[in-house]
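Let's sit down with a protein and look at its sequence and fold side by side. Once you have written the record down, we can walk along the chain together.
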Amino acid sequence: MSKPNYDLEERLREYSACVVRLTESMKRSRATNRIGDQLRDSRRWMRLIQRAALDAKPPLVDSLLAEAEQLIRIFAASIRTAEKKRESKSS
């Protein structure tokens, strides 16, 4: 069985596009405008949007939050691997 090929760059682009779609689906208010401006810290804001029920499409927030969690795990694993390789080279 071959290992699936994941294009992380494409996943990040798609995630960003989904975040834009989410901000466009929210009711317009000062709060949602501010949240939209701050979505660079998206996991925290996704949870806030979810809790405050600010989105017009709750399933979109759920899927974006799940994707954010997966991307964080991927990057954390990559960092751990790089650190282990660097430590083994310096030993």
